[in-house]
Write a structure and sequence with these properties.
The protein is α/β, with parallel strands linked by helices. It contains 16 helices and 15 strands. It has a 7-stranded mixed β-sheet, with helices on both faces. It starts with 9 loop residues before the first helix and ends with a helix.
Length: 401
């Protein structure tokens, strides 16, 4: 490292970094230099910036593309009773800071692979959701595009739902009208599954869709995939993750979808999130104290969950498969506003660790695979709706878009 940025010149290091970081994260431009220094103090190595050994660009790219790196992140590690920021995450940000100041990492390369969270004050890997396979699935072009209004969020440190809704107004309205058009083509009942990462706006768009369907004279209900989870103790004892088939009362889920599509009333398990237990045992039989959920037939049945069409044996039962997507950087800003400022839901270090770890893993095992098989992707950040050739043809012939 250049000796001009030794431990005795920490102010010069900070000043040089501040200028570089404003290029990478425009939200930092709202800070005064001494405010930036306050933030940086939390990541400044005890031995000084001279002590940071930085890896080559190739090594870093290899590291952040390996799922094993994320599995090693400690979400809830505690020291003296307090949750601590994961050491690997800290070191990654320290390397990027040092590389930017010394010129070994250029801002363009950093922006290509990372985004910076101004509230958490750390770097996170930038997920590429539109992989080659996903683009090929949609014949390499969106069905409809709009102005990308979320770009204004680059200058924000947090994003409330009102801002988010306004930025997405055109793409959301197009999506709602498209869904109404598709329902008019398809015979009810229709099973409609909408997957999406946390804070992508999935819950809100489902509420708005439900209202639009009801105003059109359609009866709406929903099936929550989480209610089919087996007891957490059983899953943990057998090393089963929530995205796997073995984590669910799978046969009951399959039969429930088959029955409600035939207009039958269904009885499904009830999962208690507080006790992490199901109303049914691992064989799918109701427990003595179990209380199932009764669901009446309807015209539109929403399937709610993170991975509704990852289960190959039920995909054919789902009439419309949608991924509602928002880029990680915007979702992070939404979560700061929603989960920290309003809900006060998480310890800050737990929050930072968890988001860093889970976004890459969930993208690889849940969201990208579903984008490869879904019918529509609503990309609110890219302000575009992607449709398979079949669905695109239906929409164009109906004149919905």
């Amino acid at each position: 490292m250049d000796s001009s940025f030794s431990i005795s010149e920490s102010t010069a290091f900070s000043a040089a970094l501040f200028e570089k970081m404003k290029l990478i994260s425009p939200a930092l431009s709202s800070l005064e230099f001494y405010e930036f220094q306050y933030c940086l103090e939390n990541l400044t190595p005890k031995e000084g910036w001279d002590s940071i050994f930085i890896l080559s660009k190739e090594k870093i790219e290899e590291q952040i593309s390996n799922i094993e790196f994320y599995k090693q992140i400690q979400i809830n590690q505690k020291v003296n009773g307090q949750v601590v920021f994961d050491a690997q995450i800290i070191h990654l940000s320290q390397m990027l800071f040092t590389g930017l100041v010394t010129g070994k990492y250029d801002p363009a390369w950093v922006k290509m692979h990372f985004y910076f969270d101004p509230r958490g004050f750390y770097f996170l890997h930038k997920t590429t959701y539109f992989t080659t396979r996903v683009l090929e699935h949609f014949q390499n072009r969106p069905h409809e595009s709009f102005a990308q209004k979320q770009i204004s969020f680059e200058k924000c440190q947090g994003v409330g739902y009102k801002q988010f809704k306004e930025a997405n107004s055109e793409v959301d309205e197009c999506f709602i009208q498209s869904m109404l058009a598709l329902i008019s083509i398809k015979k009810v009942p229709v099973l409609l599954a909408i997957a999406g990462p946390t804070a992508a706006g999935k819950t809100e768009i489902v509420e708005r869709l439900s209202k639009a369907f009801e105003e059109a004279g359609l009866h709406v209900t929903s099936i929550e995939l989480d209610n089919f989870l087996t007891d957490r103790d059983y899953r943990e004892a057998n090393g089963i993750h929530t995205e796997g088939m073995r984590a669910l009362h799978y046969e009951r889920f399959k039969h429930a979808l088959e029955d409600i599509k035939q207009g039958k009333k269904i009885s499904i398990p009830r999962y208690d999130t507080l006790s992490a237990t199901s109303s049914h045992d691992i064989w799918g039989n109701i427990k003595p104290d179990g209380i199932p959920i009764e669901i009446e037939p309807a015209d539109i049945i929403f399937i709610e969950g993170n991975f509704p069409f990852l289960l190959e044996e039920v995909v054919h039962l789902i009439d419309i498969k949608v991924v509602y997507l928002t880029d990680d950087a915007v979702r992070m800003k939404r979560k700061w506003k929603r989960d920290i400022d309003y809900r006060k839901k998480y310890d800050v270090n737990y929050f930072r660790n968890r988001f860093f770890k889970e976004q890459f893993i969930m993208a690889q095992i849940a969201y990208i695979p579903q984008m490869e098989v879904c019918d529509l992707v609503v990309d609110t950040t890219g302000a575009a709706i992607w449709a398979t050739p079949e669905f695109s043809k239906w929409l164009k012939n109906d004149g919905a878009i």
